[in-house]
Design brief:
This protein is mainly α. 65% of the residues lie in helices and 6% in strands. The chain has helices at residues 3-23, 25-33, 44-52, 69-79, 92-111, 114-147, 156-179, 182-189, 193-247, 286-295, 304-343, 349-355, 362-375, 378-381; strands at residues 56-57, 66-67, 347-348, 384-392, 400-409.
Length: 410
Amino acid sequence: MSKLEVASSFVQTGIERLSLLGTHAKALMDGYLSEFIDEAAFTEQALRKLINAQILWRPDEQSGLKLTKVVCDLIAQMLADEKRRTVNADVAEDLEHILALVESYKEAYYRGDYLLADDHLLHLTQVVDGIHSNFSSAIDSLWKRINTDFAFVSSLTEKIRENQRAQKQVTRLLDGFALIDFDRLIENAGLNGALRKLLVSQFQAHMSTHYSSLREVQQRLLELIARFRKQQERSWLVQQMSDFLRTHPKFTPENYALRAAIPDLINQASPLLAKVNLALDRTQDLPLLAELVQEQPARQRLDTAIDVNLDSVIVWFEDEQIQARQQQLKLDVENFYIEVLDTRRKLSAVEHLVQSQLNWDSEMWLFQVIGYYDALPDLEQKKFKLIRDESYASYWNEVLWIKDVEVVLV
């Protein structure tokens, strides 16, 4: 059987099984809303076709027919039935499938079998679109539940439970994002333009959008759980007060403002401190004011000039230390260049740093060696040749890393 005949057979089978869904739509929808399918609504031949098409299944010999999970998920997805729609965050298998299809595509392409390569590329595109669709559907489901404030549940306790369940789904989705290694996808795509466009540019753009949306979902869920907790605390307070009044029908609240000692639960306001001023115009209070002033401890005067001088000495001492270290680093670099002149051979800056046991960071040392060379006058600079041991950060990153510098006398 040729590939064309196989494809034609698949198309014919797909049309027949999709027609089954349309022909028995009402009975299947009734089965979606109930536990079992009403077998009396179908003929024996129709039941056989629906079971062979994996639309219906029987869990055991004693139970009735039910819709398969795939069909239930399809109906829940089309109806946006948030009670039944599930969040699929398992991308590990899809990623392994993508890598396998990439290898198959490249083998067929390099072999010259372009028809098979196009078939693999089409399948690869469908898998990538499937991951994109799963994330988009999951985030859309979470947003619909959030925008209704979990209105499909009746109590605050259930709202909090649903919010916690949604937060766990967000965590699983973020774990799914963490599994996508774009460096590995770039490496597998290589220089093939079709693969790089599909697996890098388009796929990464979609995932970045989903990641931003998911972060907004997570922030909104946290705001809602805080609101639900606050409402729950208030409802508990009202419920406890209602239960207390039901068990104490003769209870009457007191006027706490007339009591000398107000309970801490009621007395939430901070005390007021009245402002007072000395009445210097009352001559009869002058002896008392004089006694109060004499009882005050004497104010100790600080010599601010001494403090300022001390601070300036400390700053000056710190500046002297920094200048001394800079001068020492400059002197060590000059000695390195002098050694190049004396030995008249090529010297490594890193080896000189280790052999001379200089207490400098290697990156700082190399930076100073290169800077000293660039600062030399043109006439003196021409006497030396600077050889840099550098390499790219990675195959795809053209940032140069300088590992060592060798100086030789020209």
